[in-house]
């Protein structure tokens, strides 16, 4: 056996442990840790696994409701969708790995989130991703976009889950630190959810899936540090994905779960074997003994340290009913996957790791997760945004072209055509506009999915920005007729040790909490990614909200498209808020003014109205970035017919006031709809109509075909 | 119509194909695991579904074509049995030699998933009889390696024998002569890259693909 290195101050610092954290380890153990133990502590106590800076604030979020079967704390959230079925979902970031090695970083991000979902016993039925890249002309952006999109496609397409939506944005604040947030949702029987808490003493701990290699050793620690110019040296900490193995692991796990053999199960994600074993023991109030000699390895002479910290993909840890061992083994042999008993549960509060006849770690298990440090980091609220100075005049069509000619608002076909968005043959609404919809297989129900955030707003006004992210998700679900059920949050921020960054975090969380309470969309799962900085420059605060809505019948879908002759109806107040607007940024490169305020009562009232009136509405879209003008164009483009609005004021056309929608309404249904709106106290007004060959905004006009060509070509022209 | 769908470990359109068979015929398809060496008795048709049979890290379909069940599929086809291969299934069928030509990386290098317009090139087959020759149908593609490559003499022969089943109106992958699907000499084996099973249900936005399964059900009901 090789001897383990001596514990020095440099070694402690290299593991990302602060002096006070190391002092706490000495206090807990009453002795210095071994090298393997130091690695285990660093894996459990880094920001990525311990949420040490964010925990205090995450506790303030609403996580309960009659629809919630399981909230945060497990691999994914579980929400009731009626008829004994549940939707299981989560969103998680893979930002740092994707910047270092975009293809594999993004691919393994997808793999990780899919595992989180099927670990709970759910078959994945939909995926989304929210991507933020640096400015289009930054030298690294194009290769990052290509690598990330290919990576996501390569994994999801092979695994066989439809990728049905997401976001792609470009902003210089992400030049040195792209964001890759991956969402997955699965379907399970509500009474057959699998959890991670072990139970019973002396139960076998089983290792399933792919073999362990040296890839990803120290990955979770890497994900909890800022970047600098040494980033290229970190490439070996990125894992490599194998979607074919993941697909087999999915099928084998679901098959095994049906046999009743599984007591508890946990995927090996960040900090692999360490984190999964400790979590199962901790939740079950048990200890765990691991014998690493039995771990299937694909490299020779792996040390205990490497095995405990490896982030090799497509692996699971499970506590098994001993009488079912032969049956379980046969299933994994059928799928040609490794199956090895690597330990057992023990009665004491102890995490015992043995290798080659020696004890490599002997730690108090509960303290490893329970005693993880928790910080109440100092924070300061950002100064209120300066008022918006005068906005230059711009013609309506010129303003629209500034938006649809930008990769931020152009059609994203180049991206989503690389994702299989129809596999499983239940995709009802494909990517491209608003929420994606998949049918619940074999039923007349459907689920809608959306991912939203407007980082410009979050920087200008974190609390309103946090509210707006949830409100936009609520609107996107409502606009297709879906009843918003619950939310997952993927909170991407800079270095929390800086009070102004912590202030952004706190403000956004408060706003998200406000909106989730008011709109009855509890947070059931999520992920925090901090230290998204390079050379001291932070990203825009980006709390991505993933949300799920339910359609009780396929006839409740507001499907669209608009038809020629339909009336164009604005739901909500007239626009005028140009602060932090897309127009301001895309046309003049200006980020000024306050974020639009979010009236959550109006959001709820207007969204509820839309769903109640679904039968009277042909097509609907929410008004967000780009305001009325962009919404009208997108609806017209999707329908292949023109649109005419009697508006030419810049504020009315491009203002980003909230709680608004644009509808296409059959003229025969119009009067009744407007009357119903009045009765419900919902502002509604006919602004024009669909039809013809042009997009006409007030006195300005352009052929739809010309605009559509710009819209469909701009993304590929800039980045293809 | 007694049907079976072959399941490789990386198949991911197996359920979709089984649903389409059942919707057309009213009879449930049998799922057959790739490690089996024999097929169920009395089958009318075998479906080889889309997906990534063995990860497609080598040539797509190459390992699947050498799996135990594929020998049985080849024997079944040689005895006149009917076989439908979609997407990865088409790749498997070319790798077994049941269909000529090869499928290479898309000309545009990238994976492509979108609706395409297909022209029905022949109605003279048990897979296409419900369509009219020259009819244009809209069906999705979703593949990385769908570029059908055939030498000129093979294309000439396929045309002369009326064995091109479908062609692309707007070629998405660089396929020779816009070929999207081909028939075997006896017209009882069809391989195609597009996914008719993804457009065989009105809820999914269209039923242009349903004609293929209706053709099969009709052919096998009267057989």
Task: Describe the structure in your own words.
The complex is a heterodimer of chains A (720) and B (223). Chain A is 36% helix and 23% strand. Chain A has a seven-stranded mixed β-sheet with strand order 8-10-7-11-9-12-13. In chain A, helix 7 packs parallel to helix 10. Chain A is globular. By secondary structure, chain A is of the alpha+beta class. In chain B, helix 1 crosses helix 5. Classes of the chains: A alpha+beta (720), B alpha/beta (223).
How is the topology of this model organized?
The complex is a heterodimer of chains A (720) and B (223).
Chain A lengths: L8 H6 L4 H11 L5 H11 L1 H4 L4 H4 L9 E3 L6 E4 L4 E9 L1 H6 L1 H18 L3 E11 L7 H19 L3 E8 L8 E11 L14 E6 L9 H4 L20 H16 L3 E6 L4 H12 L3 E5 L12 H6 L5 E6 L4 H10 L3 E9 L4 E5 L2 E6 L1 H6 L25 H9 L8 H4 L10 E3 L6 E4 L6 E7 L2 H6 L1 H18 L3 E10 L6 H20 L4 E7 L3 E2 L2 E2 L3 E10 L15 E5 L10 H7 L11 H13 L6 E4 L4 H13 L3 E3 L4 H5 L6 E5 L1 H14 L3 E7 L3 E4 L2 E4 H16 L1
Helix pairs in contact in A: 7-8, 7-10, 8-10, 10-13, 15-20, 18-19, 18-21
Chain B lengths: L2 E5 L6 H12 L4 E4 L11 E4 L19 H11 L3 E5 L1 H9 L5 E3 L7 E9 L15 E8 L3 E3 L2 H9 L3 E5 L10 E5 L5 E4 L17 H12 L2
Helix pairs in contact in B: 1-5
């Amino acid at each position: 056996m090789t001897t383990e290195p001596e514990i020095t101050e440099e070694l402690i610092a290299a593991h990302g442990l602060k002096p006070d954290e190391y002092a706490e380890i000495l206090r807990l153990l009453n002795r210095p840790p071994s090298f393997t133990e130091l690695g285990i502590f660093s894996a459990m106590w880094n920001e990525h696994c311990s949420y040490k800076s964010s925990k205090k604030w995450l506790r303030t979020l609403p996580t309960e409701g009659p629809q919630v079967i399981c909230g945060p704390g497990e691999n994914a959230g579980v929400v009731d969708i009626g008829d004994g079925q549940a939707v299981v979902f989560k969103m998680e970031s893979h930002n740092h790995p994707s910047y270092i090695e975009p293809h594999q970083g993004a691919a393994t991000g997808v793999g990780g989130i899919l595992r989180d979902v099927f670990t709970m016993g759910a078959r994945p039925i939909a995926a989304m991703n929210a991507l933020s890249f640096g400015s289009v002309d930054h030298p690294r952006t194009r290769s990052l976009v290509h690598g990330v999109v290919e990576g996501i496609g390569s994994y999801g397409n092979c695994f066989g889950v439809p990728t049905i939506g997401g976001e792609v944005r470009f902003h210089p604040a992400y030049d040195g630190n792209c964001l890759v947030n991956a969402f997955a949702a699965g379907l399970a029987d509500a009474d057959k959810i699998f959890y991670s808490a072990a139970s019973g003493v002396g139960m076998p701990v089983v290792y399933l899936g792919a073999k362990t290699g040296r890839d990803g050793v120290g990955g979770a620690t890497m994900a909890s540090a800022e970047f600098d110019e040494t980033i290229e040296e970190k490439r070996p900490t990125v894992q490599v994905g194998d979607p074919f193995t993941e697909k087999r692991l999915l099928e084998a796990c679901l098959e095994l779960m049906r046999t009743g053999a599984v007591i508890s199960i946990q995927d090996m994600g960040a900090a692999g074997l360490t984190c999964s074993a400790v979590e199962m023991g901790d939740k079950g109030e048990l200890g765990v003994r691991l014998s690493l000699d039995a771990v299937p390895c694909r490299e020779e002479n792996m040390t205990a340290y490497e095995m405990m910290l490896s982030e090799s993909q497509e692996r699971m840890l499970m506590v098994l009913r001993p009488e079912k061992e032969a049956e379980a083994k046969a299933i994994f042999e059928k799928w040609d996957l490794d199956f090895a008993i690597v330990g057992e549960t023990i009665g004491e509060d102890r995490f015992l790791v043995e290798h080659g006849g020696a004890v490599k770690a002997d730690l108090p298990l509960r303290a490893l997760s329970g005693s993880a440090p928790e910080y109440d980091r100092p924070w300061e609220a950002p100064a209120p945004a300066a008022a918006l100075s005068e906005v230059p005049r711009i013609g309506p069509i010129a303003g629209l072209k500034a938006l649809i000619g930008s990769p931020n608002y152009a059609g994203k076909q180049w991206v989503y055509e690389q994702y299989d968005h129809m596999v499983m043959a239940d995709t009802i609404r494909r990517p491209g506009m608003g929420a994606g919809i998949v049918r619940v297989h074999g039923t007349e129900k459907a689920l809608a999915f959306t991912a939203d955030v407007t980082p410009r707003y979050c920087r200008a006004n974190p609390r309103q920005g946090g509210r707006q992210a949830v409100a936009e998700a609520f609107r996107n679900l409502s606009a297709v007729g879906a009843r918003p059920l619950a939310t997952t949050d993927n909170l991407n921020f800079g270095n929390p040790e800086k009070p102004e960054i912590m202030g952004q975090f706190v403000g956004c969380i408060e706003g998200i909490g406000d909106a989730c309470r008011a709109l009855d969309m509890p947070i059931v799962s999520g992920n925090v990614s901090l230290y998204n900085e390079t050379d001291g420059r932070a990203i825009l605060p980006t709390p991505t909200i993933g949300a799920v809505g339910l359609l009780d019948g396929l006839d409740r879908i507001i499907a669209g498209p608009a038809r020629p002759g339909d009336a164009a109806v604005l739901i909500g107040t007239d626009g005028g808020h140009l602060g932090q607007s897309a127009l301001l940024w895309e046309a003049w490169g200006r980020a000024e003014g306050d974020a639009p305020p979010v009236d959550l009562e109006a959001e709820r009232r207007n969204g509820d109205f839309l769903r109640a009136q679904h039968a009277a509405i042909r097509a609907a879209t929410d008004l967000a970035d780009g305001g009325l003008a962009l919404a009208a164009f997108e609806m017209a483009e999707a329908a292949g017919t023109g649109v005419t609005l009697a508006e030419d004021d810049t504020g009315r056309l491009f203002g980003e006031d909230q709680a608004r929608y644009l509808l296409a309404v059959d003229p025969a249904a119009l009067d009744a709809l407007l009357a119903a709106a009045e009765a419900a106290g919902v502002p509604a007004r006919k602004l024009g109509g669909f039809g013809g060959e042009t997009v006409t905004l007030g006195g300005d006009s352009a052929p739809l075909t010309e605009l559509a060509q710009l819209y469909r070509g701009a993304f590929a022209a800039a980045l293809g | 119509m007694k049907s079976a769908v072959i399941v490789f470990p990386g198949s991911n359109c197996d359920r979709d194909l089984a649903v389409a068979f059942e919707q057309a015929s009213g009879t449930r398809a049998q799922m057959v695991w790739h490690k089996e060496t024999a097929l169920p008795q009395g089958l009318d048709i075998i479906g080889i579904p889309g997906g990534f049979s063995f990860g497609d890290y080598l040539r797509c379909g190459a390992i699947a074509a050498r799996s135990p069940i594929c020998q049985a599929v080849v024997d079944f086809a040689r005895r006149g049995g009917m076989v439908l291969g979609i997407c990865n299934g088409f790749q498997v069928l070319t790798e077994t030699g049941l269909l000529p030509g090869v499928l290479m990386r898309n000309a545009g290098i990238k994976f492509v998933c979108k609706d395409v317009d297909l022209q029905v090139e022949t109605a003279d087959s048990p897979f296409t009889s419900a369509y009219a020759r020259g009819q244009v149908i809209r069906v999705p593609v979703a593949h990385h390696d769908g570029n059908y490559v055939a030498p000129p003499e093979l294309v000439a022969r396929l045309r002369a024998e009326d064995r091109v089943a479908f062609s692309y109106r707007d070629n998405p992958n660089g396929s020779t002569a816009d070929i999207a699907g081909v028939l075997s000499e006896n017209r009882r084996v069809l391989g195609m890259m597009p996914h008719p099973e993804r457009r065989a249900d009105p809820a999914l936005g269209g039923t242009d693909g349903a004609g293929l399964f209706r053709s099969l059900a009709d052919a096998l009901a009267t057989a």
